[in-house]
Amino acid sequence: MADPVAGLTNSIIQTTRFSLDDFRRCGSVELAFDYLRERLEAAGIFVLLLGNLGSYHTNIPSDTFRGFAIADRVAPFVVVNDQDARAAWSFTALHEVVHLWLGTTGVSGASAEVGIERYCNDVAGELLLPAAEIGQIERVGRLALEDAVEAVSEFARLRRISRAMVAYKLLRTDAITEAKWRGLSDRFRRDWLASRARQEDEPRNAGGPSYYVIKRHRLGGALLDLVRHSLGDGILTYTKAGQVLGVKARNVDPLLHGSPLPAGQ
């Protein structure tokens, strides 16, 4: 953490070949995350979306954890809690990537003021929203809350990032007061909880992607490819492959060899 934020940011960009312009050109926050994930996996990092213990009945709220990193030199893992807002996934993934660069394994949650968590936030924030751009929205500090919410929302939408991340960056650069930041954060959280409640009220059998499509998206292409090749080479049995993928042995083939994953799913 003695390295300047800009230095570590550049190291991650060079290693992953991440392009902020390409990220922002994606048509949605979901597609932007897919692009980021592809860059991270190409660099050798496994990126998983996991937010429960096997079914929606065991969902783990993002208040418990937003993500975690396993800083293994052979198989570094980043796990993002998919129960969190989708707009937050990219920031969480990059926060965990910073943990990998620092060589620290651990769970990230609400303790943003802990030294290492703040540093990881600062690097992830610089990757997705360079400090040079903050001047474009510094007026938020002078706006009433509702006007500030509208300004931050539009700013975040155009950059495929979460509103909460923009507000945090404004706070860290002293563009807004802590009171204004708390007001924005509370409002964004209420909006998100209301959105989640509406989703939970929708029937779960109302169509949508199949179980295998969802499972493949959560596991990520890198892990699926590794298991597929390991099975073909006889390194893994179907029983162990099922343990790695979190499915029964008989479900390994449908998971690995099903129809291609649609873009953005």
Give a quick precis of the structure.
This protein has 265 residues and is mainly alpha-helical. It has helices at residues 5-16, 20-25, 29-42, 89-102, 115-128, 145-159, 163-172, 178-201, 211-219, 221-232, 238-245, 252-257, and strands at 46-49, 67-70, 77-80, 106-108.
What is the β-strand count?
4
Mean pLDDT: 89
Output the radius of gyration: 19 Å
Main-sheet strand order equals 1-3-2-4
End-to-end gap: 36 Å
> What are the segments in which pLDDT stays under 50 over at least 5 consecutive residues?
259-265
Q: Helical percent range?
A: 40-55%
Shape: globular
In DSSP terms, counting alpha (H) and pi (I) runs of 4 or more, how many helices? Answer: 12
Largest sheet: 4 strands, mixed
Report on this model:
Helices cover about 55% and strands about 5% of the residues. Strand 2 and strand 3 form a beta hairpin. It folds into three domains: about 1-130, no CATH class; about 135-205; about 210-255, no CATH class. The chain has helices at about 5-15, 20-25, 30-40, 90-100, 115-130, 145-160, 165-170, 180-200, 210-220, 220-230, 240-245, 250-255; strands spanning about 45-50, 65-70, 75-80, 105-110. The model is unreliable at about 260-265 (pLDDT under 50). It has a four-stranded mixed β-sheet.
